[in-house]
Specification:
The protein is mainly alpha-helical. The chain is built from 5 helices and no strands. It is elongated.
């Protein structure tokens, strides 16, 4: 996902600047259909036993298959709504800035390419901060 942001944000900004947002949607949709969907269908394994592992990589744990529930049961469960709210909030917060910051910067008079470069630089700094955070002496 992070590599995709580093590649697709500049590409999207370029397409929006040169052809408009509708063309950018079409190009991004085609990229998803032609590249991402086949890779996911081929590479992603949905079950730990597909790669000879138990959940969390533990080969000695006892594993019971997940039970399925009906849609109406899921809609009545507290866990479903907490997970849905968490995913929606996380996605909204993460992508609100990513989607609107370039156009906001252009409205303020900045060049779109410069703003995309700043977003890419911020992403790289984020990767470095994750590496630094792994040291025990920094954790709070």
């Amino acid at each position: 996902m992070n590599i995709g942001q580093l590649i697709l944000l500049p590409l999207t900004g370029f397409i929006i600047a040169s052809s408009g947002f509708r063309s950018a949607f079409v190009v991004l949709g085609l990229i998803m259909l032609v590249i991402v969907v086949p890779i996911v269908l081929i590479v992603v394994k949905n079950n730990p036993t597909d790669v000879n592992q138990m959940p969390d990589g533990d080969s000695t744990s006892l594993f019971t298959a997940a039970t399925s529930v009906s849609l109406s049961e899921a809609l009545r469960s507290r866990e479903f709504w907490i997970a849905t709210l968490g995913f929606a909030t996380c996605g909204f917060i993460l992508y609100l800035v990513t989607m609107h910051l370039p156009n906001f910067a252009v409205d303020l008079g900045y060049i779109l390419l410069r703003q995309i470069t700043i977003l890419v630089f911020a992403k790289l700094l984020g990767w470095q901060s994750e590496r630094i955070y792994q040291f025990d002496w920094i954790k709070v």
